[in-house]
Write a structure and sequence with these properties.
It comes from Neorhizobium galegae bv. orientalis str. HAMBI 540. Keywords: Plasmid. It holds the Pfam family FecR_C. This is Protein FecR C-terminal domain-containing protein. The chain is an alpha+beta fold and 68 residues long. The chain has one domain: Phage tail protein beta-alpha-beta fold (3-Layer(bab) Sandwich). The protein has three helices and five strands, in the order E-H-E-H-E-H-E-E. It has helices at 6-14, 26-30, 42-53, and strands at 4-5, 20-23, 32-33, 56-60, 63-67. Strand 4 and strand 5 (63-67) form a beta hairpin. The protein starts with a strand and ends with a strand.
Length: 68
């Protein structure tokens, strides 16, 4: 990913995740991220996003919430 909005990264991750991934705000969804990760591996992709953007990830069963 090269300067991709978080919303795009989440969209790609969602194609490989059986649950739902939600970004808590549109401002956060618009933040951009660059780097390499395997979006098919949800845990690795979430770790990448957490490190790159300094966000918090909360898992509630099949729901993942990403917030500031």
């Amino acid at each position: 990913m090269d300067n991709a909005p978080l919303s795009y990264v989440i969209e790609e991750m969602s194609r490989h995740f059986y649950g739902r991934i939600v970004v808590a705000s549109s401002a956060l969804a618009d933040r951009r991220v660059s780097g390499t990760t395997k979006v098919a591996n949800t845990d690795d992709a979430l770790a990448f996003v957490t490190k790159a953007l300094g966000v918090k990830v909360t898992r509630l069963g099949p729901l993942i919430v990403i917030r500031q």
